[in-house]
Amino acid sequence: METRLLPLTFALLLLGGCSARVVKVSPGPLIRVEGQPVSIRCDVIEYGGPREQDFEWEMSREPSSQKIKIISTFDTSYSHQSVSKRVASGDISVVRLKDNEAELKISEVKALDAGFYWCQTPSTDSVISGNYEAQVQLTVIPNTLKVSPQTPPPNVPEGSDLTLTCNVTRELTHPTYLSVTWLVKKGTTSEEILTFGPQGEVVTGAKFARRYADGGIRLVPGKNGVFELVISRVTTSDEGIYECNGTEWTHENGGKWIKIVESTKEMGTVAVTPTGRSLSVKASSSSSPSSSSLQLSPGDTMTLLCSVAADNLPSVTPEVTWLADGRELITMERSGVVASNGSRRAEASPERTEASLERTAAGEYRLVVRGVGGPDGGLYACRVRAFIGKEGRSSGGGGRWHMVAEKTSSPLTVKVSDIKPSFTVTLEASQSPQMTAEPTELACHVTNITQLPPGGRLGVSWEHTTLPGVGDDPQASHTIASLDGSGNLSPGSMYAERLKTGVLSLSRVQPNTFKLRFLRTQEIDMGQYVCNVSSWSINSQGVLLRTAVYESSPLTVRWDTKRPSLNVVAKRIREASVGGATFEMSCSVTTENVGEAGYSVLIQSQDSLESNVRTIMTLSPDNVMQHGGATDPNRRDSLVLTKSGPAEFRFRLAGVQLSDRGFYWCDITAWTKQQPGQTWTKATSSESNKVKIDFQENGPSFSIAIQSDASSVYPWETAKMECSLSVSGSSPKTDDLAYEVSWFFTRLRGGQTTTQVAAVDRFGVVRKMLRNSSSDISVERKDTHTYLLNIYGTQDSDSGEYHCIATPWYLSASTGAWTEAGELMSSRVFLTVKFAVWDSLKLPLLYGAAASLGVGLFSLVFGLVCAQCCCRNTTHTPRSRNKLMDLEMD
């Protein structure tokens, strides 16, 4: 144990020998101002002994003179009698900051406190090493800082500049530095505006940083300690009590700036006079400045003056707007750009001059409107918005603007003598309809126009009154549409759709002639028509105003109404007397009171007069042909429907078959259009007489049968079903005969839900349908008349009824065309998929017996092995005591 402690003790001695005590104080020399507090910090590191260290402070006037004990952290009687009273009063104290850090504090330093200060730490180390004391010099200078602010003006107009002057000086006996700070006090809180110094730098308060960057706050250093702070374009937010702070600094060896003395003086209270308090705006006439009204005649020039006055007018930038009846007429922006809001005056009459606005003197703006008319009368007022701009160096000189006041003058009444225009209105029918769907055109003429002002315009409004007994609301008057002085169309609610589609149109064909045109006149359009012509003028605001309205005499439009009729005649062009021949018929159309029309054609047929009607083909009014749902897709090339004349249509069916026998006719509908590009409107429709296709052909006879090789099978076996067809009568050759065969499956015996399993067409193409079974199927043709269905890997879901359907096709000897015979359906056979109980259970039983036998044999062998190993008779020979002793000694 002792051999292990020796190396540990030696390592601890080496570690203790490597550490050395270090005592440090604040870097000096320290320069402080008389009467100000002084703190000298001392700390010790790399020491031994307890964590909490004690400190002793001493001082001397000179480095070599006798030291005076000042204060200790552990000895209360340590202080010299010359400083004991100051220690007792607390003027001199020591404060422990940490276990290894303390601070000597002098509340009010005196000149006699200048000298050298030592911080000592009594040794607690096992080995003396390092330094146990540190020295710093304290220099005490007199307080010579003086702060002398100038009192700012108590009231400053909004938008002007405010200059804050402050004089900060001190006597330079030691290397100290000055800074000056301006503050504004609002309530009980002072906000720092800007600080200059102590080494020439500028620091702004958070709320004034952007304003300083924009140039709204400028620092002007002067001579002999005079500093000026200029706040440009003050606003009401700049009100408050301004203060000036002077601070003296020292820069110690540690690199820190230390504030050694400061002084704050109140400069004075500044109030900002709002612009709105002194802003005044007056609108007057240049001809009669004292009058509140102005009388003008049409064509005169109107001159109005806007006078703006304010105490700080040079400091603000106004935006001047003239208002006519409360609406903006023209504006001079802050930049001097004039923006007119009555530009429609120039559009209405190019020879008339636009309203103009110009600045004639400081605070005076003149509005001039030439060639006034009746609509220019009204209440005119001048609105002024005063802005104060904030210079913006950082934004390229653009700056920011702040609106400080807005004021509108009392209104000035302007009256313009009203001379009502006069003219005569006549209405005539330039095109009258003789029947429904013909066009109608009415012309409204304006003559004898007098006293229409320059730039005046004409508008028109059309009205219609129905005849008694026509329409749902007889003798009701409705507005068709109107055109105002600018040509804007306003449709009536009943005619909006017809105007939108172009069936109905309004136009101005000459300066004094308006027309109303119906492309296709309807019966409801009969009645009395009136046109109302109005005159329009534009006022000084650029707004169209109606000045007069004159009405024409009513004009009656009517004709003898005749209902449209249509007659269709069908006739046979080519007779189909035998199968495979071509059938052709034509349908001719005759109409009355329909006019220009388009026709849609339906070719329809039925097997007998009592059977269902089938649509074979259709032809739209735009000559688009489509096949009907009853048309076999394989025979569409044999069907043709064409327009053979203006009112004649032909239908052709090539290669007729027995299934084509029956009656055929045309169903034709006449359609009219209101105008090109619009949708068709049905006029009338009619069916033709019926044409019959009837021929006899003695073809072969067919029969069908189905049989299965087994009625029941086991799962996974193959089931086979044979569909056999036979032919009798005039049997065609083998190459002239083909079949379409399909197999169908019903889940339950006699069930109604039948699904198709597979099919083969007459060209030998096989189609298999999706099934709910994992089994597979195939279709094969054994010979010309026999088809076989194979079901591989049968499952229980394949149990059910099966039957086949066949359609024979043969090549007719008389026509040389393939002919479709009637569809044949076989009887039904039922297939049962049996469930083999023994086959499904023999493997699980065999596996279970083998597993039981294996487990029994394993248990028997395992028991014999355990008996031999655990129950054997063994003899234990104890080890001698001597041998045990020998082993332990080894």
Automatic annotation (TrEMBL):
Biased composition (Low complexity): 278-297
Signal peptide: 1-20
This protein's UniProt keywords: Disulfide bond, Immunoglobulin domain, Membrane, Repeat, Signal, Transmembrane, Transmembrane helix
Topology in the lipid bilayer: Single-pass membrane protein
PROSITE patterns listed in its UniProt record: IG_LIKE, PROKAR_LIPOPROTEIN
InterPro entries given in the database record: Ig-like_dom, Ig-like_dom_sf, Ig-like_fold, Ig_sub, Ig_sub2, Ig_V-set, IgSF_V-set/TM_domain
Listed name of the protein: Ig-like domain-containing protein
Gene3D superfamilies: Immunoglobulins
Transmembrane portions of the chain: 845-871
Protein's cellular compartments: Membrane
Record-linked SUPFAM superfamilies: Immunoglobulin
Pfam families reported in the protein's UniProt record: V-set
Major localisation: membrane
Highest taxon listed in the record's lineage: Eukaryota
Keyword rRNA processing assigned: no
Record carries keyword Repeat: yes
One GO CC term, this protein: membrane
Region (Disordered): 277-297
Domain Ig-like: 34-129, 142-244, 289-384, 421-550, 700-807
